[in-house]
From TrEMBL, chain A:
Membrane-traversing stretches: none
Keyword Transport set for record: yes
Positions of the ABC transporter domain: 6-251
Annotated GO biological process: peptide transport; transmembrane transport
Name this polypeptide is given: ABC transporter ATP-binding protein
Molecular function, one GO term: ATP binding
Superkingdom of the organism of origin: Bacteria
Record keywords, A-Z: ATP-binding, Nucleotide-binding, Transport
CDD domains: ABC_NikE_OppD_transporters
Family as reported in the entry's similarity comment: Belongs to the ABC transporter superfamily.
Automatic annotation (TrEMBL), chain B:
Transmembrane segments: 29-51, 92-118, 125-147, 153-173, 211-234, 254-277, 298-324
The entry's keywords: ATP-binding, Cell membrane, Membrane, Nucleotide-binding, Transmembrane, Transmembrane helix, Transport
Location in or out of the cell: Cell membrane; Membrane
Main location: membrane
Family statement: Belongs to the ABC transporter superfamily. Belongs to the binding-protein-dependent transport system permease family.
A GO CC term attached to the entry: plasma membrane
Record-linked InterPro entries: AAA+_ATPase, ABC_Ni/Peptide_Import, ABC_transporter-like_ATP-bd, ABC_transporter-like_CS, MetI-like, MetI-like_sf, OppC_N, P-loop_NTPase
Ranges for domain ABC transporter: 351-600
Molecular function terms, GO-annotated: ATP binding; ATP hydrolysis activity
Membrane topology listed for this record: Multi-pass membrane protein; Peripheral membrane protein
Protein name: Dipeptide/oligopeptide/nickel ABC transporter permease/ATP-binding protein
Length: 279, 639
């Protein structure tokens, strides 16, 4: 196997506490994770588990206080802003909320051209690239002159994906990219993610609270709980036959969309909880 | 794949797009004040050129001369032509005000941008300095400055500009702090934009409008203060300004009262025009802000309600959904199976051909629910499922009599235990809503008032609604809190909403909904905002409570797992119509409508997990090596 694209080792992130001499809040307590080129690693956890913080640390948006993040062998955990900018063509992001992740005052073309012109691409070439990008994410070319508010949530998320793809990154951090979308839109956007990966060989760090979503897109899955990774392994193993009690609880809590199977799962979950309560 | 985008002409004209200037001109007050200021500006530029005499040319014959043909406004105590002085003074007074304005603008805006964007030590220093400057009495500082630097209009205005800078600093700082946390600013950083570019492109555009408004106010203040200083005789008497003319007129008020009028008019009208302009601009801006805020809030509190309206605008006028009619496509109805029949009591809620419309600006009505019929039986859980924009939340809100502003029932009937709800007045509704029909919202936190304790919010409806004494109501509330699984009811009773978690808040709201023993509870996406493990617990609670109290539950949701867990019967909504209806097992097992099938097909749980990156990875090994090489190149380049 080739060397990992991204290696996170014993990563710690602390946010300064609020108020005088307040204790800092430790969002990540020694997290280790690696992603191969072209691979999707799913990161599951509930709110407050630190999964988003891990994504933001990789993007250079969270304060790294310990451990290391290596991208293609190079330490990127504590880069200066200027050095960090160099990495923008390597690591990109798709955020959860398609409503606040696009500047409401700019047209789609302005949004997509921005990262290109900053890197010195000529305006004509950049416009050409925008047309290709829109086509790649399944939006009509005439979408470029519209404002974000004229699009539905799923379409905005496609714009966000196009922006992430603009610089041909090798890794995209996807922070709950489909959780604000309707069920059928969700499925289509997930398929788009997979299709893009198969075509371009981009790697994903795919963050979600939804086991089913992560199972659908991830080669490997890691489960986070209270700032630590409690279980990781192949997608099928973690999402269907979890070993850690927390993952089992998570797995059991998700209702199955079938009345009879769900009844069985409910019984099983209550039994599990009863055992946990006794133990 | 839905790549169809609603044509732009179907989108309501966005108010934010028309320029501020155009919106200001549309108001008469804006036009008048802007026109007046334009005249003042022109005079300020060409004033000395069109002045009939040298403003400083003194003539002994003309001392305090009354208006005449040669001197339309007369002459002052030095025998100088008043009209010429007024024209020349305009230039100096306006320029002096501009000095103060520009100084304040430069210092305040730049410091505000840096402090708000970077935070850190600069933020602390700048905020401390701002507080210090604001604490200084301005006029005293100006008097002291005059003693040191001498009687100069420009120096005084420069110092006054520094004193005014905090007004801009605070404004810009607040705006930048708010925008800074928007995800698009993070996205711009990840895109490799320099800080300067992010500030100029994404942040400055947000603070631009408030800065313009503030400038109009500050300019008015600067003119008034500057005139005040000159009036007190603290300025340079050799330079004609409005203030010094006022001073001269005041001294001679008994001999030539008219002298005071001209500078007074100039000062007053200019200041008033600036203030009015600021007000008009604020009105023009705040109206759009309000609209935006309301829309966002609606999305946050009841996803689907307002979103539903906007999506339907697109579909109805976009030519996709024209002529949607109940007759056009009858609801597919599955017969009851024995499980559903076993739960069935008599029908308590009967909705027939319900239509909901929203009044439009052009006087027409936009229909978003096109004839929905559903019945809920005593003690059953009825699922109403559909995607955002399907009208499911609208239907539920219509039953509660809580349609958003502009929405009303345009047809059909709602019958609840023999009472026609659709024609009920607001007063009678309060006797039913929250008492005989309970409501569990989607966002637990935004449905609790942050300024009251949880206990008082639960006790109040019991006392008012059921007429219980305070002691009884408190006892009942504590028992309910315990029943809904809150570990320490007494502590939660005394707590404020921000002190409990989202899951706990939802339990509190469930306790509130069942406290009056209603026969029907309407739950609008009750678990969507919760973590999956908390969701499971809340669903357990709802199931137990429902069985225990034999309540009917109308569950509005988009989550098929929740439906499978809880519901007896299900109605599937699309485009404001119920397309399929039946017992839960029939919907999951034998769905007939293409829309229901597509929804079921989109469920991810069924599919196999993605295989680990194995064989494919080896094939791509070459690409990967190339990637690493590229990354190495970047690494080298960065050094």
């Amino acid at each position: 196997m080739s060397a990992p694209l991204l290696e996170v080792e014993n990563l710690e992130v602390e946010y300064p506490g609020k108020g005088f001499r307040a204790k800092p809040f430790r969002a990540l307590k020694g997290v280790s994770l690696d992603i191969l080129p072209g691979e999707t690693v799913g990161l599951v956890g509930e709110s407050g588990s630190g999964k988003t913080t891990l994504g933001r640390a990789v993007l250079g948006l969270a304060p790294v206080t310990g451990g290391s993040i290596r991208y293609a062998g190079r330490e990127i955990g504590q880069l200066h802003r200027r050095e960090r900018r160099e990495l923008s063509s390597e690591i990109q992001v798709v955020f959860q909320d398609p409503y606040s992740s696009l500047n409401p005052a700019l047209t789609i073309e302005q949004i997509l051209i921005e990262p290109l012109t900053v890197r010195g691409v000529s305006t004509a070439a950049a416009k050409q690239r925008v047309a290709t990008l829109l086509e790649q994410v399944g939006l009509p070319v005439d979408a470029r002159s519209r404002l974000p508010r004229e699009f539905s949530g799923g379409q905005r998320q496609r714009v966000a994906i196009a922006r992430a793809l603009a610089l041909d990154p090798k890794l995209i951090v996807c922070d709950e990219p489909v959780s604000a979308l309707d069920l059928s839109t969700q499925a289509r956007v997930l398929d788009l993610f997979i299709e893009i990966q198969e075509r371009t060989g981009v790697a994903y760090l795919f963050i979600s609270h939804d086991l089913a979503v992560v199972r659908h897109v991830s080669h490997r899955v890691a489960v986070m709980y209270r700032g630590e990774i409690v279980e990781s392994g192949d997608g099928d193993q973690v999402t269907a036959r979890p070993e850690h009690p927390y993952t089992q609880k998570l797995f059991m809590a998700a209702p199955v969309p079938d009345p009879d199977q769900q009844e069985e799962r409910r019984v099983a979950r209550r039994r599990l909880m009863a055992i946990a309560a006794e133990g | 794949m839905t790549t169809a985008i609603t044509p732009p002409n179907t989108i309501p004209t966005p108010t934010g797009r028309t320029s501020l200037l155009r919106r200001v001109i549309r108001r008469p007050l804006g036009t008048i004040s802007l026109a007046f200021l334009l005249v003042v500006a022109v005079i300020a530029v060409i004033g000395p050129l069109i002045a009939p005499y040298d403003p400083n040319l003194a003539s002994l014959q003309l001392v305090l001369a009354p208006p005449s043909a040669e001197h339309p406004l007369g002459a002052d105590s030095g025998g100088r032509d008043v009209l010429s002085r007024l024209l020349a003074a305009t230039q100096i007074s306006i320029a002096a005000a501009l000095v103060a304005l520009v100084t304040a603008l430069l210092i305040g805006v730049i410091a505000g941008l840096i402090a708000g964007y970077y935070r850190g030590w600069f933020d602390n220093v700048a905020s401390w300095f701002t507080a210090l400057v604001m604490a200084l009495p301005g006029i005293v500082v100006l008097l002291a400055a005059r003693a040191v630097v001498g009687p100069s209009v420009w120096a005084a205005m420069l110092i006054f500009g520094i004193l005014l800078a905090p007004a801009y600093f605070r404004l810009v700082y607040a705006a930048v702090s708010a925008v800074r946390s928007e995800l698009y600013v993070d996205a711009a950083r990840v895109s490799g934009l320099s800080d300067l570019r992010i500030i100029s492109r994404h942040i400055l555009s947000v603070v631009r409008a408030p800065i313009i408004i503030q400038s109009a106010i500050v300019a008015g203040i600067a003119i008034a203060i500057q005139s005040g200083l000159e009036f007190l005789g603290l300025g340079d008497m050799s330079v004609p300004t409005w203030g010094s003319m006022l001073n001269d007129g005041f001294i001679n008020i008994y001999k030539a009262p008219l002298l005071m009028m001209w500078p007074s008019l100039a000062i007053a009208l200019t200041s008033i025009a600036l203030t009015l302009l600021a007000n008009v601009m604020r009105d023009a801006l705040e109206r759009t802000v309000q609209v935006r805020r309301r829309r966002r809030r609606a999305v946050a509190t009841a996803t689907g309600s307002i979103a539903a309206v906007t999506t339907s605008i697109g579909t109805v006028t976009g030519g996709i959904g024209i002529g949607i009619d109940a007759e056009a496509e009858p609801t597919i109805r599955h017969a009851d199976d024995e499980r559903a029949a076993a739960r069935a009591g008599e029908t308590i809620l009967d909705v027939r051909d319900l239509r909901i419309g929203y009044g439009q600006d052009d006087g027409g009505t936009l229909e978003v629910v096109h004839g929905v019929s559903l019945d809920i039986r005593r003690g059953e859980v009825h699922g109403l499922i559909g995607e955002s924009g399907s009208g499911k939340t609208q239907t539920a809100f219509a039953v509660l009599g809580l349609l958003p502003r502009g929405g009303r029932i345009t047809g059909g009937s709602i019958d609840y235990e023999g009472v026609r709800l659709d024609t009920l007045g607001e007063r009678e509704y309060t006797a039913i809503r929250g008492r005989r029909i309970g409501y569990i919202p989607q966002e637990p936190m935004s449905n609790l008032d942050p300024s009251f304790t949880i206990g008082s919010q639960l006790v109040e409806p019991l006392r008012v609604g059921l007429g219980l004494s305070k002691k009884d109501a408190t006892e009942k509330t504590l028992a309910l809190l315990e029943r809904v699984g809150i570990p320490d009811p007494k502590r939660t009773f005394a707590a404020y909403p921000h002190e409990v978690s989202g899951g706990m808040a939802q339990r509190v709201l469930i306790a509130g909904a069942v406290s009056t023993d209603p026969d029907l509870i309407i739950a609008d996406e009750p678990t969507t905002a919760l973590d999956v493990t908390v969701q499971a617990e809340v669903l357990d609670l709802l199931r137990d409570l429902q069985a225990e109290r034999q309540m009917a539950l109308l569950l509005v949701t988009h989550n098929f797992g929740v439906v499978a867990d809880l519901c007896d019967r299900v109605s599937v909504m699309q485009h404001g119509l119920i397309v399929e209806h039946g017992p839960v097992r029939a919907i999951f097992g034998r769905a007939e409508h293409p829309y229901t099938r597509s929804l079921l097909g989109a469920i991810l749980d069924e599919g196999p997990a993605r295989a680990p990156l194995g064989g494919a990875a080896i094939e791509k090994a070459e690409i990967q090596d190339a990637d690493v090489a590229k990354a190495d190149a970047v690494k080298g380049g960065a050094r």
